[in-house]
Amino acid sequence: MVISEIGNLVLFDHKNATVWQSFDHPTDTIVPGQTLVEVFYHGAPKRVYAYVESRPPQVYLEYTPAGESEGEDYIENYSTNVAFTNGNFTLRRLFDEEVYSSSISLTTVYSPQYMRLDLDGHLRLYDWSGFSWNVVFDVLQGIMDTCDYPTACGEYGLCNKGQCTCPVDINSSSSYFKLVEERNPNLGCVPITPISCQEKDKHRLLTLPSISYFDKNYTVVNTTSVDDCKKACLNNCSCMAVMFRDSKCIWMTKVFSLQSMQPGSDSTAYLKVQIDENKKKSILGATLGSVSAVVLLAIIVSLYLKWRKKYGDKDAFEFDQLLGMPTRYSLERLSECTEGFINKLGEGGFGSVFEGKLGEERVAVKRLEGARQGKKEFLAEIETIGSIEHINLVKLIGFCAEKTERLLVYEYMSRGSLDRWIYYRHNNGPLDWCTRSRIILDIAKGLCYLHEQCKRKIAHLDIKPQNILLDDYFNAKVADFGLCKLINRDQSKVVTVMRGTPGYLAPEWLTSRITEKVDVYSFGVVVMEIVSGRKNIDHSRPEEEVQLINVLREKAQNDQLVYLIDKHSDDMVSHQEEVIQMMKLAIWCLQNDSIRRPSMSIVVKVLEGSMSVETIDANSIMLVQHNASTYSVPPQASVLSGPR
């Protein structure tokens, strides 16, 4: 028994003939030189299939080698094989001693590789970097979209351009499905009322128009009408859903991810659900109770407003008496603690920051500019922002709201903002790789909390090194979150008036609706500044190197990312493989299409090592700086580099 150089375990007999070899018994993984062979006979299908495990299995991939067409009939036998050699994934058909092949070119590298069919259905190529196995290519990415995979959104999940939701009844407000986990919609949905075979009289079919499903091969019966198809499903407990297409009743015994199509598409799915009579009664009771509560609340509010109009003073209502509200300070007290606002730590787009001292505690006091809200609206936002606590977010200690003055009191961060430590303006030594990677993870965790773990989603809209603060131990915290709401309550302005800092703005500021994915883009820019030790826009450099993201795209296309590693630090150079992986994560975040950028929770998983970086074509990076001439606002300096 011998293991060959390419990893094939071979058993020989006494005549040195092969009796058995491991390459003939693949599981989920193949290595270079290994071939999958299956003999087909004339009139048989001539495709490579992939199935998702269920009873019966459901097909999610049909791949036909070039030169074959459905319906051809061959008299002779022929064979088809799948080979993985020399950086190519090839499907070959052998017929009459001729070879017809269809090849998908993979990334050619000179290091150990293997290809694996992963649990999510993706066929991925892995490469050994010298430290770990990394995904370098998704083999089927040119053949299949995200929503084509059976578990893209879990069981019963509805996939639309990579986003996952649960099916809803278009004809009523009733909900029959709920997310398995609210924070992770890609885990799928479950029926609110489990389907029981003992209660078939309560089974119904939920109609979902414009829906496609990956399995197009499993047909239960040929029927003449959609009504017959639906009736057959309702009469059989093993049927969980049906689709009627081309006079065929496609039967599903287990429902995986559904795909949303363009409205009006002639493809409808019918999902089996169970009606809960008790739930109907409870909903009616809850509705009546809610109406009563609303009426009672309206009466109380009306009486309070009358009382306040008669007795109340607008400036006397103390919102800081509410539980969890940050401390409310007078303007006089904050002026005293900052010694008349003389020790300025920095200034930015939202106002100036001053050093202060409350008792024995050092604080940073931000004096907002442009806050034209009424006091009640301002305090309502303060109550929301002040209730947010996370180790990677700068804590709001207190506030002041007197007449037109609006001030915020933050915890003091001794090492100031991140820009002073990566641009080398203060004669500080270069940070080592461990510190930089930890800072990047801290920023990601802070943004993840704002985007996905707060009661109200908060988009920062101005992520940059000046808004990342460091404590004594170089732990990073995100500052200035939620300030866009404090400055402007009109939410429509958030999507029409450009915010943030030139150089960190995502492309969609110019064309489309703004979501938290603008922060993901800005995060990608900041990551590149941290690992390269330079500004995103640096006019002191040669013209072709002024814009860091421009250089990144060029070096990524030429496989020269090592050029961008901060050369001030020998430690960074010695960890170049890990630094390059971090750059690839930045490229993923910098995609022009916001939908294709990862969420911050995905970014955290990648940084913690539980997920791999998705390989992105460098051409997908869009340079916002190139479009600066089309902005409706001029670039403004925004420096906030001192300790705060």
From TrEMBL:
InterPro entries from the UniProt entry: Bulb-type_lectin_dom_sf (IPR036426), G-type_lectin_kinases/EP1-like (IPR051343), Kinase-like_dom_sf (IPR011009), Pan_app (IPR003609), Prot_kinase_dom (IPR000719), Protein_kinase_ATP_BS (IPR017441), S_locus_glycoprot_dom (IPR000858), Ser/Thr_kinase_AS (IPR008271)
Classification via Gene3D superfamilies: Hepatocyte Growth Factor, Phosphorylase Kinase, domain 1, Transferase(Phosphotransferase) domain 1
Molecular functions (GO terms): ATP binding; carbohydrate binding; protein serine/threonine kinase activity
GO CC annotations, alphabetized: membrane
Membrane topology label: Single-pass type I membrane protein
Domain Apple: 197-275
Keyword Protease: no
UniProt-annotated binding residues for ATP: K366
A Pfam match: S_locus_glycop
Chain ranges of the Protein kinase domain: 339-611
Catalytic activity, reaction form: L-seryl-[protein] + ATP = O-phospho-L-seryl-[protein] + ADP + H(+); L-threonyl-[protein] + ATP = O-phospho-L-threonyl-[protein] + ADP + H(+)
EC number per UniProt: 2.7.11.1
Record-annotated membrane-spanning stretches: 283-305
Subcellular location: Membrane
A biological-process GO annotation: recognition of pollen
PANTHER family linked to this entry: G-TYPE LECTIN S-RECEPTOR-LIKE SERINE/THREONINE-PROTEIN KINASE SD2-5, RECEPTOR-LIKE SERINE_THREONINE-PROTEIN KINASE
Name of protein: non-specific serine/threonine protein kinase
Annotated organism of origin: Triticum aestivum
